[in-house]
Amino acid sequence: MGGYPADYYVMPDHKIMLSDDRTEVWVIQPLPLVKKNDLNLEIHDKGFCLDFNPEKRSPVHKCIHLAYTLDTDSAEATFEEGVLRIKAKLKEDHAGKTINIS
What we know:
Elements: E1 15-18, E2 24-30, E3 39-44, E4 47-52, E5 60-65, E6 76-80, E7 83-89
Antiparallel strand pairs: 1-2, 2-7, 3-4, 4-5, 6-7
């Protein structure tokens, strides 16, 4: 009893990283069973949306919200060996305030 339907696609976790100088964000999203021609990526100022058709699975639509404001004009993406990599500059300074840890 229970479980997922046979055509259900479980999307692996993504990684989100800031560059050391905190001016760019990098996203790494594994997408096994997905072909580049079946993948559509939309970049928004607060995240990105994916539409794709994995092999022998139902179509998938997934949006991921980021805590950063992106410069969408600077966004670049590559898709190789089932891994989507996105890079974009940040619109706003993302420096925080240093606090003491007790």
